[in-house]
Amino acid sequence: KEISSGDLANKIKEVVKSEYKKDVKVKSLNKEVIGPTRLVCNNSMARDILNWQPHVSFEDGLRKTIQWYANR
To answer: Cα(first)–Cα(last) distance of the chain, in Å?
Structure first.
């Protein structure tokens, strides 16, 4: 599933605000600083070779990642 870097930043902001009651400011950065604004990963090779598939949704993975950072 494709997501733009801006949409990802806004999703992180939503999770942090709802889970930790903290406001996060999202700044726009120019392309030279952040690189590509769109990336799409393809996990079909891992699925075909390793018989792997994701078991965690994007939203749950994002929440778990933010929780991991918050605990450190």
So the answer is: 29
The structure tokens listed for 68 are 């991991």
CA distance 72 to 61: 17
Q: Which residue did the predictor score with more confidence, 34 or 7?
A: 7
Lowest-pLDDT range of 25-34, 42-51, 56-65: 25-34
What residues does 39 pair with on adjacent strands? 3
b/e sequence 16-36, b meaning 16+ C-beta within 10 Å: beeeeeeeeeeeeeeeeeeee
Which of these, 34, 30, 33, 14, lies nearest to 22 by C-alpha position?
Answer: 14
